[in-house]
Amino acid sequence: xxxxxxxxxxxxxxxxxxxxxxxxxxxxxxxxxxxxxxxxxxxxxxxxxxxxxxxxxxxxxxxxxxxxxxxxxxxxxxxxxxxxxxxxxxxxxxxxxxxxxxxxxxxxxxxxxxxxxxxxxxxxxxxxxxxxxxxxxxxxxxxxxxxxxxxxxxxxxxxxxxxxxxxxxxxxxxxxxxxxxxxxxxxxxxxxxxxxxxxxxxxxxxxx
Length: 208
Known about the structure:
Layout: H1 5-10, H2 14-19, H3 22-32, H4 42-55, H5 62-66, H6 75-165, H7 180-183, H8 188-207
Helix pairs in contact: 3-4
């Protein structure tokens, strides 16, 4: 049967008060304007209600003698509240510690990534420098080969012009006369032909 506050106020009794739940006793206490702490236990609030009803001569004073004796202080409740507060504080501290560790982990990760980027950039820079140096050396070698080829071609042209004009290969001066003896060494086949011819002439001279 649901609790009827008006019915209880019209005819309060210890028996009915004992059968009430804490929420119902709270309604009774509020109705009478009794001050209490919401965290107080059911028996503590009920005793406040009984004391009020006795003071108002609604119930006889003997009901207090038979009522359940409860401690008048809130030591137990305060202890429980203290434990809950300490628990909440520890939870907050643990949460802050986790957040701090997470920030430190993220910071270490950023530093590691930054070091890797710097190392990669340094490696790429060194590779570019090595490639540039290699290309430079290849260009220099190519220029040297081309220069030697030009010098060789120039010397060949000088020799060719010297043979045609009759210049002295040593001095480069034009003699005006084509001297075969000076230039025959540049034509190996001609030298062998001359040697064979001279040998033939010598044999003919001896036979005569």
